[in-house]
User: Fold Extracellular solute-binding protein from Egibacter rhizosphaerae.
Amino acid sequence: MRPGLTPHPLRALLALLALTVLLAACEAEEAAEGEPDEPDEEEPDEAEPDADEPDAEDEAEPDEAEPDEDDEADGASGDHDGESITVWIMQPGSDDLEEMLEGFTADFEEETGADVDLLFQPWPDAHDAFTTAIAGDDMPDVAEMGTTWTPEFGELGVFAEQEDSGDVEYIEALVESGTPEGTPLGAPWYAGARALIYNAEVFDELGLEPPEDWDELVDVGETIQAETDMHAYGVVGAGANHFVLPRVWQAGGEIGEQHDDGTWEATLNEQEGVEAFDEYASLWSEHEFAPDGALNWDVNDAQDAFINEDMAMFEGLGPNLGVVQGEAEDLEVGVAPLPEGPAGNRDTLAGGSHLVRFADSQSPETAQAYIEYLLADERVAEFSEAVGFFPGTIEGIEAMDLDEHGEVFAEMLTDHSRSYPPTAEWGGFEGEALFTDAVQLIMQGDVSAQEALDDVADDMNDAFQE
Assistant:
């Protein structure tokens, strides 16, 4: 096993945190021993009912108001008076988006009578926050959950099962990642998939078309570097996960395989995976499509280089395009599908979020009603469009009024997106930088792609067998 890799860091941390909580509870109990008991308060005598007042049974029952059909569809039936829930939503990136979610929540409270404590969690701290909350049995009622986290925390049994969505057609990759071991735990909320963002002015001046496959990517990149002072392509080393792993699919391989008995086995060290990692690393080490510092870049660095017109192409999501257009208004930008790999596909990761309900919620019906309220078509469309993503349903995407760039991102999501293996161990792999470490070693020529991926596969299989 590679030094420093812990196959189940979440379980180990949960055990440690749980022990800490238990010890604290024991200390509190010991401190309380020997203290005098508080005297019991006398119960006040119940007042006799006034003979002149009618019994409650004799009072006429008021006519029940017919529920509003729209409220029923939203899950807001107005019968949650006195119920309180806590909701964790990831910080969406702007005050305007937070205000939008706060507005949705205020409307839900007004329509249902419930009280909602809406808290925004920073993405970088959220995983640890969930781990601590679970260990301390202090979880929210509802939470936004990144799609790769749903299987990880779901294995701990902390999520309630989601009901069958009926005829709703969701993005398949979101359903797969939200249904570990065949149990629906995460309700798809919003999603996005990467596309190729390129400098349209440079392409026009050089008479270039967006590359259709890996070979054309190299040809186009070499032309750009020969004819301009720009680097060709945003290779990222430190943030390579979502750029190199989909190439395994594009090469015709799989990252992992689930056997009939439910166990998983790593397969990314087979020929297709080796070819994918080699191809990605060569864009930096052989073709020099990105500067030396790109070894430690993440996507934001590539995005900044593109904005500064130091980079001609990079892979990004809708929000990345939004940042580019906001900071470089005069830059002519094009968006194209990702280049095909040798297997003839453009498969990429469907990133996004689920909404989950925690199983120990004291107000489960209200918690579920809040989820359904946020998932109403008009709210999903408004929020996902504002944040630069798409609704988690095919119908929701088709209802959007998209420009030519949006059409490309939508096509990548609906026709070319997949999910990583929905295993509890996946979060640990990413947290330990298992894949990015391998990419960086290959980029620097320290090891061959085969050697690096054999080590990665060994670490993955050790974790799967725990």
Notes: The chain has two domains: 84-192+350-418, 195-348+422-464. The longest strand covers residues 348-357.
